[in-house]
């Protein structure tokens, strides 16, 4: 057999394969020169090899840098895409009610990051492997065609066996991601509710619950390791047993004097390149960053995409049989309910409210009362557009002219100024410092800005700005929420027991009809929930929910 000479043009070499081919050619020439004891050729090829290798490190560094930038670019695009869909039309609120997709924070933050890193890595590896495969397949085929075809068949069988028996590993990795996210969520919950847990002295209970979550993480991971161990018994044998094949083929030809010494090293080199290129799936299937884990992340991201794009959310938004909180700015009436019937979530046949109709003129105030659990908050959520279970119609001003204050006001991560202006941003607002300080004074928070170190104080040096919910009492948070009303001046306000943590004096200050009055002075329409008799004088009409869907108006 005539061993083929190496020619880049002859074999159509791709530039990415040149470093490998340099080593490939060097091995043949080096061993042939060594076998012939030709010092001049040996030194010549050694110097040429070293000169070519000087280009290697910079190219590898630039290649890794480009991979990192590509992964970051993909992550930026995917995160913005998923985040935009997730927060669109209040889907972040509705998703837990209509889908079993869990831990959306983990999916958007970590799963997308890991997916992009692995996708770029697999893409680059596949491209290089394909170029490498084309070059060395031609060379190996020229050396000995039967050896090449045997290797291809061997790799196809190995890939099929690995994928077939490794399918359960994808499910196990998907479950591992869920359990890791559940454990992290438990730790976040402990951090966010630290004060309540401390008051209850509930450290032992919380530690026990967190340990249960972590034990589940460990148990599932052990199952993955055991499964990978069994699969790796095959993949290891697959990679090592075939190594003897080129020696069996080329060895007798060398001893017969048909090929030079360098041909043996060259055959092994090209054989292993083709084997590794064809065995990409086998080699990359297991491990925390393997294809099985990558497939699990793809499934989790696809579940989230389906939920926010095509699943029950769209049917909920389009269904005419559900309560509809529509915004009709052209009508004169501020708020109008037409034959509204609200149902609880789940399959309960009970009706929270049956055939309720009412009209609120601009500037009027309605108080909704009734015992706990009767449906007061559900009615507020329906008016705000958050409750879709039921029938009828709701007409109110657009969301940008509506402000909802819950019993526990939302405190965003940010400064005191950012919290007073929420949901607007500092850049979108022209409110002055004096206006903010005056609003805080009117809600009996005259010293809170000084206490916080100014309107723009972060509250903590370095790191994320802590929420004011960790600094202010619940009563102070409720008063701060009323300051938002003064600053934002909405046309329609929904108050869901938003003064429950206030004493009677402060509550009166929030509603009082005098110079320091808040809601009445701004001339907005108000719907309130509360059972305190002290609230009745500040409203024009009282709606009492009496149970089993019944209701009545009181003057």
Automatic annotation (TrEMBL):
It comes from the Eukaryota. The chain crosses the membrane at residues 46-66, 119-141, 147-166. Its main location: plastid. One of its GO terms (cellular component) is chloroplast. Coiled coil: none annotated. Residues 18-286 form the ABC transmembrane type-1 domain. The keyword Nucleotide-binding applies. Residues 337-555 form the ABC transporter domain. Keywords: ATP-binding, Membrane, Nucleotide-binding, Transmembrane, Transmembrane helix, Transport. It is found in: Plastid, Chloroplast. InterPro entries: AAA+_ATPase (IPR003593), ABC1_TM_dom (IPR011527), ABC1_TM_sf (IPR036640), ABC_transporter-like_ATP-bd (IPR003439), ABC_transporter-like_CS (IPR017871), ABC_transporter_sub-D (IPR050835), P-loop_NTPase (IPR027417). One of its GO terms (molecular function) is ATP binding. Belongs to the ABC transporter superfamily. ABCD family. Peroxisomal fatty acyl CoA transporter (TC 3.A.1.203) subfamily. This is ABC transporter domain-containing protein. It comes from Guillardia theta (strain CCMP2712). The lineage of its organism: Eukaryota, Cryptophyceae, Pyrenomonadales, Geminigeraceae, Guillardia.
């Amino acid at each position: 057999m005539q061993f083929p000479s190496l020619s880049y043009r002859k074999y159509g070499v791709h530039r990415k394969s040149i470093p490998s081919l340099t080593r490939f050619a060097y091995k043949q020439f080096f061993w042939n020169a060594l076998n012939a004891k030709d010092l001049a050729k040996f030194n010549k090829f050694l110097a040429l090899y070293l000169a070519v290798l000087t280009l290697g490190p910079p190219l590898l560094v630039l290649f890794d840098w480009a991979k990192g930038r590509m992964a970051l670019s993909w992550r930026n695009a995917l995160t913005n895409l998923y985040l935009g869909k997730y927060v669109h039309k209040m889907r972040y609120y509705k998703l837990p009610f209509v889908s079993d997709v869990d831990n959306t924070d983990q999916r958007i933050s970590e799963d997308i990051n890991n997916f992009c890193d692995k996708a770029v890595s697999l893409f680059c590896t596949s491209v290089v492997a394909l170029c490498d495969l084309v070059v060395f397949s031609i060379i190996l085929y020229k050396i000995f065609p039967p050896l090449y075809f045997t290797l291809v068949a061997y790799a196809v069988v190995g890939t099929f066996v690995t994928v077939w028996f490794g399918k359960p590993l994808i499910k196990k990795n998907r479950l591992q991601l869920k359990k890791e996210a559940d454990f992290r969520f438990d730790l976040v919950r402990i951090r966010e509710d630290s004060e309540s847990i401390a008051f209850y002295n509930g450290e032992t209970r919380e530690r026990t619950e967190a340990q249960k979550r972590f034990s589940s993480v460990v148990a599932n991971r052990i199952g993955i390791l055991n499964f990978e161990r069994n699969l790796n018994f095959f993949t290891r044998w697959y990679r090592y047993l075939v190594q003897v094949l080129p020696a069996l083929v080329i060895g007798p030809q060398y001893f017969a004097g048909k090929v030079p010494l360098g041909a043996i090293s060259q055959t092994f080199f090209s054989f292993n390149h083709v084997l590794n290129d064809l065995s990409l799936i086998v080699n990359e299937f297991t491990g925390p960053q393997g294809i099985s884990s990558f497939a699990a992340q793809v499934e989790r991201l696809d579940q989230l995409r389906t939920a926010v794009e095509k699943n029950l959310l769209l049917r909920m938004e389009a269904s005419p049989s559900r309560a509809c909180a529509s915004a009709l700015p052209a009508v004169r009436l501020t708020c109008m309910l037409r034959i509204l019937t609200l149902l609880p979530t789940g399959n309960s046949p009970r009706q929270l409210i049956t055939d309720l109709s009412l009209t609120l003129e601009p500037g009027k105030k309605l108080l909704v009362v009734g015992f706990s659990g009767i449906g007061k908050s559900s009615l507020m959520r329906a008016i705000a557009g958050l409750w879709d279970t039921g029938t009828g119609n709701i007409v109110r001003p657009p969301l940008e002219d509506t402000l909802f204050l819950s019993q526990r006001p939302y405190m965003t991560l940010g400064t005191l100024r950012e919290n007073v202006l929420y949901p607007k941003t500092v850049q979108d607002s022209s409110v002055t410092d004096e206006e903010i300080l005056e609003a805080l004074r009117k809600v009996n928070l005259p010293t809170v800005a000084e206490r916080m170190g100014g309107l723009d104080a972060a509250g903590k040096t370095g790191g994320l700005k802590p929420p004011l919910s960790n600094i202010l009492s619940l009563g102070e948070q409720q008063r701060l929420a009323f300051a938002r009303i003064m600053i934002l001046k909405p046309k329609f306000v929904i108050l869901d027991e938003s003064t429950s943590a206030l004493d009677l004096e402060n509550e009166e200050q929030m509603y009082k009809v005098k110079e320091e009055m808040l809601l009445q002075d701004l001339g907005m329409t108000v719907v309130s929930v509360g059972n305190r008799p002290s609230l009745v004088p500040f409203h024009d009409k009282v709606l009492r929910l009496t149970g089993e869907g019944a209701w009545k108006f009181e003057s």
